[in-house]
Amino acid sequence: MKPVLPATEYNGLYQAPADFAPLRRAVRNAGLCWHVVDLQRARGKRALFTAFAREFAFPATFGGNWDALADALQDLSWRTEPGRIVLLRGLDAFASAAADDQAMLQEILAATALYWSGRKRLFIVLASEDAGWPAWPQS
Q1: How far is residue 116's CA from residue 110's CA, in Å, rounded to a whole number?
Q2: Contacts of 98 (CB under 8 A, 6+ apart)
Q3: Are 104 and 66 in contact (CB under 8 A)?
Q4: Are 124 and 4 in contact (CB under 8 A)?
Q5: Which residues contact 5 (CB under 8 A, 6 or more apart)?
Q6: What is the tens place of the pLDDT at every residue in 49-76?
Q7: pTM, to two decimals
Q8: N or C: which end of the chain has fewer CB within 10 A?
């Protein structure tokens, strides 16, 4: 079955489908961006900020704190894609090492998805491991 390209009403945080390759192809074929943020070795917020800054190519002025992460994810003016899906890898390992930081990250990502919904831009976050998030609705 060919995946349906998600619309902004799907913006939010979800458990990734078991086979996300068809979704990734559909996203890329539509000119959207597929990000992979690997948190497998991240054990605190500094490593998390570095992983996001690297994947999203944050400007050199990125402040490396929670407010700066939220601001950067809700700006993205240096990115040309009209929307994005973010796959988080290693979120379970990160949560085990830094539960409070994982909770703050989840809050920022949910707020970012809502922000982009209001602007009719796709922003979906998928966790590759069980994060207690709802299942991807197109699974």
Answers
A1: 10
A2: 42, 43, 44, 45, 48
A3: yes
A4: no
A5: 26, 27, 30
A6: 999 999 999 999 999 999 999 999 999 9
A7: 0.93
A8: N
